[in-house]
TrEMBL record:
Protein name per UniProt: Neurogenic differentiation factor 6-A-like
SMART domains reported in the protein's UniProt record: HLH
Organism the protein comes from: Scomber scombrus
Gene3D superfamilies with a match to the protein in the record: Helix-loop-helix DNA-binding domain
UniProt-listed GO biological process terms: axon development; positive regulation of transcription by RNA polymerase II; sensory organ development
DNA sequence: TAGGCCATCTGGTCCT
DNA sequence: AGGACCAGATGGCCTA
């Protein structure tokens, strides 16, 4: 009778039952016990047996094998049954550790997905795209910090999408399109944020303007406000990508363009957001450099609120 | 159906 | 010796 190492499996749940059963099969394949002996027994006693019995036998075998190696070169050493079991057990343990390690890595990647733009619960970026986008995002933010200037929308978008695949670029374009118009063109639908912080503001009803029926607007130029992420570290938000299909982005110049929208006066809203952001923070939390940046943000707000040049 | 993405297994290497 | 890390191999799932 075959007994599976369920302890190992249960302590290392995969996200998919299919995966789990597949893993189970793999273990069955990789841990074929000898006939008439339960695997559990094998695993349970493997280490002790291996250590206890293995010593004499192994020494003898190794001596033989060593002698063979000296005489004939490459003959593979034959292991005792106890040693084979022990090797199997160690392999199973190593597999479990490796699975855990990869799960940890995936969790970290999920965390990363939540803090880069373009976060969607259902339409997840691939691992490689997440890393690329994160790199671009960091680079773009660093550029803003070092120069003290915010790039225009297209430049920033192009920076973010540098090296990304076409599907991801399209996804990004879809985000940006919605960011510029969906809040006011659709009522009742779930809105989204290029920056996770938006939902925090929205949930609190901060920054609603008269033009949006009480619905808080994300300003067109808010795309250039990456500091949002500094003020909210709980990016558990959904996106319109979770809610339904998107209109295809308009591509041009090898990257993408944004739909041209009628200019909307977002400024009151956005100033409100900014003020709220800063005022909500305790003085100890405020980095002087942040204040400087935010101040600068206001100065050029008007320019950035101009309709995006096509 | 091909290709992309992913999870897992596996053996090798390095480090403690 | 044993664990962490890595990269290659493999096979499943999904989508265009």
């Amino acid at each position: 009778m075959l007994t599976l190492p369920f302890d190992e499996l249960s302590s290392n749940q995969t996200s998919s039952p299919i995966r789990t059963s597949w893993a189970t099969n793999q273990i069955i394949k990789s841990v074929k016990p000898e006939p008439g002996r339960a695997l559990q027994d094998t695993l349970k006693s493997g280490r002790e047996d291996g250590e206890r019995h293995g010593t004499e036998e192994e020494e003898q075998e190794e001596e033989e094998a060593g002698g063979d190696l000296r005489r004939r070169g490459s003959r593979k050493k034959k292991l005792s049954q106890a040693r084979q079991d022990r090797v199997r057990l160690r392999r199973i343990e190593a597999n479990a550790r490796e699975r855990n390690r990869m799960h940890g890595l995936n969790n970290a990647l999920d965390s990363l997905r939540k803090v880069v733009p373009c976060y969607s619960k259902t339409q997840k970026l691939s691992k490689i795209e997440t890393l690329r986008l994160a790199k671009n995002y960091i680079w773009a933010l660093g550029e803003i910090l070092s120069t003290g200037k915010r790039p225009d929308l297209l430049t920033f978008a192009q920076t973010l999408c540098k090296g990304l695949s076409q599907p991801t670029t399209n996804l990004m374009a879809s985000y940006l399109q919605l960011n510029t118009h969906s809040f006011i063109s659709e009522s009742g639908g779930e809105s989204f944020s290029l920056y996770p912080a938006y939902h925090h503001y929205r949930a609190e009803g901060v920054g609603a303007s008269s033009a949006d029926n009480g619905r808080p607007l994300r300003p067109f130029s808010s795309f250039c406000g990456p500091y949002d992420a500094l003020y909210d570290l709980s990016p558990d938000c959904s996106s319109p990508l979770d809610a339904g299909p998107l209109s295809p982005p308009i591509n041009f110049n090898g990257i993408f363009s944004l739909k041209h929208e009628e200019p909307v006066d977002y400024r009151s809203c956005h100033y409100g957001l900014r003020y709220r952001s800063i005022s909500q923070s305790s003085s100890a939390d405020i980095n002087p450099y942040d204040i400087h940046l935010c101040g600068q943000f206001y100065q050029v707000q008007e320019d950035l609120n101009k309709p995006f040049p096509n």
